[in-house]
Amino acid sequence: MSFREKTHWAAFLALAAAFGWYFLAYPWAMVSTDAGVAAVAAMLVPVTIIIIAVLAVTAAFFAIRAPKEAHLKEDERERSIHVRGTHLAYYPLVLGAWINMIAIFYRFSPGVYLNLLMATVVIAELVRVGSQLYYYRRGY
Amino acid sequence: MAELPFTNDIRMLRFLMCEMTQGELGDRVGVTRQTIAAIEQGKYSPSLEVAFRIAHVFNRPLEEVFRWRQEKD
């Protein structure tokens, strides 16, 4: 498994775990209140810190174990895997944007829009990293 | 996954070059070991530049490293 594939696994698991916790622990009963909006901000801080910390620690760990691999430049196969993953992530991103636009007509609270937008970005990111992992495993 | 329309003799050529490893070939070509493995197994179609670089390492013409499959009629 290459250095980039390992860091992709770390990113995928960190994203799934951190935002899994966020969406499970979020106080949905107060989503329509000002406190619900404040809760989004308050919960995003630890989620962001956890993701950055996991990515930094795992990248450093794998780089120390295999420094040569960590310094290798991205080659053409890896670049093409990244392009494919980003391309696939575009679809959930657009779908999420449309859902948000339609939701505006139903006059939800800002907390609902914030969470919808965040779910859109998280799903798109999971599709991007997940599909890249799939292509890494398949060879291309 | 669709089968590539060409095969290659990279594994045999590596063996003939003093059992060169995939990592060593990757270093000389400028790609990762995993990319060489994917090319060798017919999972990834390399760019023309990488194909020429591989042939250059083995000091062979391109068509001795990569061979077009006979089309089935």
TrEMBL record, chain A:
Keywords: Membrane, Transmembrane, Transmembrane helix. This is DUF2178 domain-containing protein. The chain crosses the membrane at residues 35-64, 85-106, 112-136. It comes from the Bacteria. The keyword Membrane applies. It comes from Sphingorhabdus contaminans.
UniProtKB/TrEMBL annotation, chain B:
Residues 20-65 form the HTH cro/C1-type domain. SUPFAM superfamilies: lambda repressor-like DNA-binding domains. Keywords: DNA-binding. SMART domains: HTH_XRE. It comes from the Bacteria. InterPro entries: Cro/C1-type_HTH, Lambda_DNA-bd_dom_sf. Pfam families: HTH_3. GO terms for molecular function: DNA binding. This is Helix-turn-helix transcriptional regulator. It comes from Sphingorhabdus contaminans.
